[in-house]
Structure formats: C-alpha cells, structure tokens
Amino acid sequence: MLGFARFIGACSFAAAVTASSLAAASDNPLLDRFKAEGVRVGIAGYAPYGYKQADGSFTGEQVEVVQHVLTEMGITDIEYIAMDFGALIPSLVAGRIDLSAAGMYIRPERCEQVLFAEPTFGQGAAYVVKAGNPKGLHTFKDIAATDGAILAVLAGGTEEDLAKRDGVPDDKLLKVSDKAAGISAVMSGRADGFALSAFAIADIVRTAGELIGVESSGSITEIAGETYKGHGAISFPKGDGEVLAANAAFRDAFDAIQATYIGSGAYGEMASAWGFGPDDGPAFDMATLCGAGL
Q1: pTM of the model
Q2: pLDDT tens, residue by residue, 4-41
Q3: Which of 86, 102, 106, 251 sits in a 20 to 30 Å window from 14, CA-based?
Q4: Based on the domain organization, do 84 and 45 belong to the same domain?
C-alpha cells in the first residue's frame, strides 16, 4: 500500500505539474514555441547595442540583455540577424524576426506598431565630425545655422526626427542605411557630421576616432528647448486579438526577468563595459514614453 500511496502521490504531483505546465503554456504559447523552435533576434549591427565580434559571436548591451533573459526563460537556440536599422520594425511586423535588440528608442508612433519592454537606459544624442571640428559644430541647431552644413542620419532613425525638431531642414540631411555609410560620408566630406546616440558616437570615437580622424560633437541633451533623453528597449511584434495577447504575454514574462536582472546589479556591471553608468538609467517607464512624446 505504501508503494501505491507513493505512486498515487507521484501521479498527483505529475498531474499538478502537467496542469501547471499546460496552464503556463496556454498563458504564454510563444514561450513554448521559442523553446522548441528557437528565436530570431534582429540587430542593427553596431556598438554598443548589438554587433558581431571577430570570433563570430554577438555582443552589445541589448544583445547581452536578450541573451541573459532568454536563457533564464529556457530558450537556448538564439539566431541573431543583422539588418539596416530602418528594417527592424517592418521585419517585426512581417514576422521575419521575433524581437529586436538594437537600442531602439521608445516613441509613441513606434508603440503603435510594436511592443516594447521596459527601457534599460536613457541618453542624449551626438554626432561625429572630422578631427578638430573645423566648422565648430556641436548641436543640431549649429547644423541648421551653418551655411552648407550637412548631417548624415540613419534612415528611419531617431536622430533624423530630433534634427528636424531642432530646426534642421530636409535638404541638410543625408539619409544613410548604416553606421559605416554615415562615417564614410563624414570622412569623404559629403557630410559634416553623422548622428547617432551619444553612446554609439562615444564608442566610434573610443575605438577608431584617432585612426579615422573623427571626434564627437559632444552630447546633445536639449531639443527644441526641452530636455531630451532617448530611452532604448527591446522590442517585439504586436498584432491584434489573440496574437497581441500572446505577444504581450511573452513581453511581460521577458520584462519580469529583465527587472530582476537590472535589480540584481548584474546588468549594471555588464553594461559598464560599453560606458553605461548610473546616470544613464531610464527617467521614464515604457507606458509613459509610449503615451507622451520622445
């Protein structure tokens, strides 16, 4: 009888686990799918957010967040797919990738198309100029006010919108597809500056500034008279109805583990490798950023 009792107990436990697992599966169907089939992560291919290293592995502040959280969720088959920054949201909407890890800023118009996790950082903008800054350019207003000054920006990137909000007309913007094209535009003289986030510009100057002869304009933290801080986050597909519910359930599960990661201090230690410090934390949460301005 004791053996039978143990058997019954074991069955009850297994049934409880199975019921719990089924409930979890029904609550988060994408989690089970990604565990079984793997997950595709879109990156824009530049530091400090997500890029390929010489040994073929991928790293960056956003990639390391994804790697940590997905591993904690039990997802081990992770494929990183590099693409132009402007292709990330269309790829999420079309289902070609399952999430993106490119330091994408949370903005209301983007929230209409994709879901965002909570932001992991907040920072200003900047641009690279030729060493010595021959035209004395430091802000977007300087680009607007200087005859003949041209600013290269990523097509579809936040800096294009920031420059326009700060008075830079379209005919002073050179839209490029990626970081290499932007830097090349400055080096060749087709543009006087190439704008990205302050972290990304600092990384270019730190790793190659002296070699290629560029320096930073300095961090830009005021846009159109208002204090500016761009908040970057992992993004997910959105959809409607049951698809939206499934995507939101996965995003919420991701967020819960990300919060624990950040709260433990391990995130800060990881991100410091790319220059992220205590002052670079988010000033607003995702809901606020989706609902009110940049």
Answers
A1: 0.75
A2: 333 233 333 333 333 344 344 458 999 999 999 999 99
A3: 251
A4: yes
